[in-house]
């Protein structure tokens, strides 16, 4: 009965002269589900241009974190990852990074596909007073709209100007896909 109704509806569209494709709702492909932490792998991009210039102190630099879909299905990511830096000094504590003003795109990750996001960093000299610098040790990275994080060891060394209470800090994250 359902197929007869679909055929009748399709015939009505054709008779009306409208060039449209009628597809039964049961045959329409389902949109991919949101990517969950368990669907993903994460890590720092470490090759060539992806390595931040932590030795210079005159300008901001960027580090990149990637997510790869390790599941057996496509999934979507949209928004900002949560990023908490854990410091190596006793005075560092944990710093939850602010978000940029950029608008996040919605990304569909096919099985095995990778997408990244950048962290803009403001390095400082080693001679900077300990209370004014943050020495990253590890990053707790939570995919958008998730509550479970990855723990990534900071591989680049260096120090960042400590602005964990600033309204517009020089160290912040950009959306996934930008």
UniProtKB/TrEMBL annotation:
Signal peptide boundaries: 1-21
InterPro entries listed in its UniProt record: DUF4232 (IPR025326)
Boundaries of every DUF4232 domain copy: 35-155
Keywords noted in UniProt: Signal
Source organism superkingdom: Bacteria
Name of the protein in its database record: DUF4232 domain-containing protein
Species: Streptomyces griseofuscus
């Amino acid at each position: 009965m359902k197929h007869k109704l679909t055929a009748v509806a399709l015939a009505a569209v054709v008779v009306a002269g409208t060039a449209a494709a009628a597809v039964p709702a049961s045959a329409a492909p389902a949109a991919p589900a949101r990517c969950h932490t368990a669907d993903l792998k994460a890590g720092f991009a470490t090759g060539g241009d992806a390595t931040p210039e932590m030795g210079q102190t005159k300008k901001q630099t960027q580090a990149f974190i990637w997510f790869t879909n390790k599941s057996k299905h496509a999934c979507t990511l949209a928004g900002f990852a949560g990023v908490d830096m854990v410091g190596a000094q006793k005075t560092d504590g944990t710093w939850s990074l602010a978000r940029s003003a950029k608008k996040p795109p919605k990304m569909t990750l096919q099985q095995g596909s990778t997408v990244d996001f950048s962290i803009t960093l403001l390095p400082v000299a080693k001679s900077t007073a300990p209370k004014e610098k943050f020495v990253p040790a590890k990053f707790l990275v939570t995919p958008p709209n998730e509550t479970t994080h990855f723990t990534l060891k900071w591989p680049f060394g260096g120090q960042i100007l400590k602005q964990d209470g600033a309204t517009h800090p020089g160290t912040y994250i950009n959306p996934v896909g930008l």
